[in-house]
Amino acid sequence: MGSLFRSEEMALCQLFLQSEAAYACVSELGELGLVQFRDLNPDVNAFQRKFVNEVRRCDEMERKLRYLEKEIKKDGIPMLDTGESPEAPQPREMIDLEATFEKLENELREVNQNAEALKRNFLELTELKHILRKTQVFFDESVPTVYKSSGAYSSSKYRRYPQMADNQNEDEQAQLLGEEGVRASQPGQNLKLGFVAGVILRERLPAFERMLWRACRGNVFLRQAMIETPLEDPTNGDQVHKSVFIIFFQGDQLKTRVKKICEGFRATLYPCPEAPADRREMAMGVMTRIEDLNTVLGQTQDHRHRVLVAAAKNLKNWFVKVRKIKAIYHTLNLFNLDVTQKCLIAECWVPLLDFETIQLALRRGTERSGSSVPPILNRMQTFENPPTYNRTNKFTKAFQALIDAYGVASYREMNPAPYTIITFPFLFAVMFGDLGHGAIMALFGLWMIRKEKGLAAQKTDNEIWNIFFGGRYIIFLMGVFSMYTGLIYNDIFSKSLNIFGSHWHMSYNKSTVMENKFLQLSPKVDYEGAPYPFGMDPIWQVAGANKIIFHNAYKMKISIIFGVIHMIFGVVMSWHNHTYFRNRISLIYEFIPQLIFLLLLFFYMVLLMFIKWIKFAATNEKPYSEACAPSILITFIDMVLFNTPKPPPDHCETYMFFGQHFIQVLFVLVAVGCIPVMLLAKPLLIMQARKQANEEVQPIAGATSDAETGGVSNGGSHGGGGGHEEEEELSEIFIHQSIHTIEYVLGSVSHTASYLRLWALSLAHAQLAEVLWTMVLSIGLKQEGPVGGIVLTCVFAFWAILTVGILVLMEGLSAFLHTLRLHWVEFQSKFYKGQGYAFQPFSFDAIIENGAAAAEE
Length: 857
Prior knowledge:
Blueprint: E1 10-18, H1 19-32, E2 36-37, H2 52-74, H3 93-141, H4 170-177, H5 179-182, E3 194-201, H6 205-215, E4 221-226, E5 231-232, E6 239-240, E7 242-249, H7 252-264, E8 268-270, H8 276-332, E9 336-337, E10 343-351, H9 355-369, E11 376-380, H10 396-406, H11 417-432, H12 435-450, H13 452-458, H14 463-470, H15 472-489, H16 510-515, H17 523-526, H18 547-580, H19 584-615, H20 632-641, H21 660-692, H22 706-709, H23 730-754, H24 757-781, H25 785-827, H26 844-856
Antiparallel strand pairs: 1-10, 1-11, 2-10, 3-7, 3-8, 4-7, 5-6, 9-10
Helix pairs in contact: 1-8, 1-9, 2-3, 2-8, 3-8, 6-7, 8-26, 10-11, 11-15, 11-24, 11-25, 12-15, 12-25, 18-19, 18-23, 18-24, 19-20, 19-21, 19-23, 21-23, 24-25
């Protein structure tokens, strides 16, 4: 069989590269993506390897590019992505790239620092502008003078005190001025109130007021006003809301205390002249400086924008180049240096079919580097298990991912993916059979397939969407197969299509039909004798009383039939594994007993179903009429337990064919006899082979168990390496074989019953569709007139949402998971071990894709 049905044949190779040509050769292999390198320095610390300095330089360049990317995204500038992948630059080009990135980073940091300083100055000037405006309002609102007359002198002296416009009473004024205010009436004393002005974050203002009141014991006077427009924080660019405040106090002690409180609440204090003329002059100067700053800020932002736009055009390509350089040097760190320090030695796994392609890539790399010494690629003999490499395309990739999710196939083991392409959507469709629901699913999958280039280019990080898009071909096939099974079931949104006309006719007259709620059609009289050409007869759709009974029997039997055939196919697949690996003992003493056991018991039960369908009919006379048809389940139970069948009804026969009792007893005895063969034959033969070899460590062709070899033979003609492991203890071999046998025998019963999920989910899906039609859509269809049209539109929309949400999405997901279980457990357990490890080639495409995904996260 070709590589489609098995993993690629792999070879372990030794690669010799001249030091000058190593970079170019590894670059060509990275573009090719067909070589998996091994680490020849596993004990060497990552910081002690030869090319660690180059890797660090690449990390530094990546850091600078991430900084540029962050600034570009902050400004909302689109980054040009042509979708092309530039070649890895030569080592000498690293210096130019580093210089370019260094220049861009320094220029951008300088611009950002200047912009931040300008914004900080702009913020300070803006706050000062608001302070001058608001404090002017405060002073304008104050009462000009307060006159107090002194009774101690004959002449009147006038004293001027600033007082705010809230018309405080004399007690409040005395509290603010203190004892000195009482003495202010004496001659020669002129008492003034000091004040400070500033801005504070609006959310801190209530706590700020409480602290001032408590710390100064009420001997300060605070006025505040909100700044209506939000201000920009120069550090992070956030919009903040602030308020202007002015605090009046008397004395240096209170002044010191007020300033400390302002400092604690991170309030910004600004100088505010006392004289109105000085305030107006300062305000004019502030406005002039703000206008100049606006001009400089605009020019700075324009320059920054031009720098970022120029960088955005090349950023994606720069990222690709740097990641390629870093990947090359990281790979070179896996190599060994020879004693002359002029040659690099590597070991790698390569697919045999691509051996010539890899050699051509190495030659291209040598020519690019200008080296005169050609690279040498030699095959090595090894006992290691090679990695598993299954070639995929965009169609088979999703199916292969389903198999690999269970376990990566052992080297050269039969690959279930090609068969899964057919069996997976088919078994899904058996459970999901509906022409309408299948059409919705198929159209959705077809839309994703037609638009796959555009959808793939979007590169969204929505995980659910990525799952749907990755499985678009699976969804399309599941929809197509569901349409087919829907035609077989003659089911479209719980209704039937009468394409060819029913092959049943009504023998009752009109009055009988109108007077009776339930009437039964007789196959002898009302059936035409020929079946409906394709699928089920639409007459069963109106058979309200026994429709579910007929569908129940039909779907249960086809579930068992499909299940047994699927399991037999799985056992046959193990024959391909045994013959390929020349495991003669497993072929004779495992495969043959397993197949006989399955055929004589469960395939015989399937044959009984067909015999019953063929021999017994309602139109036949006894002993082959419908009344004489035996129960297959009871017959099978009696067969296994050696029970005597119950006496049949009159004029009926006990058995369906001549010699049935003898054949059933023989089949059961032979099937039971296969169990000790599966259990003991293989371990005993291995034990005998070891004794004959006098305990020499020499594997005998076909005489090692699967557990010993991991499913891989040491035959020279099947790949570049076979499993060569230490021999197991005989006790472990006996235990392993016992577990394997018990699992197979009991699993044959449980797995057959497990396929009944096909019947159960199919019935559940059909009944849910019928419930939605009966309880939702039929309500709208019964309405008449203009109002009926509106009601029908609303009801149809509700029915469509429920259909898509419940029957297509939820039921589809349920059927998908059940189908996945049938393949992983019931099918693959018969032949698939999945104990290998995946081939992970050195590929620039994979590295860049993973790097881009990590950057988005």
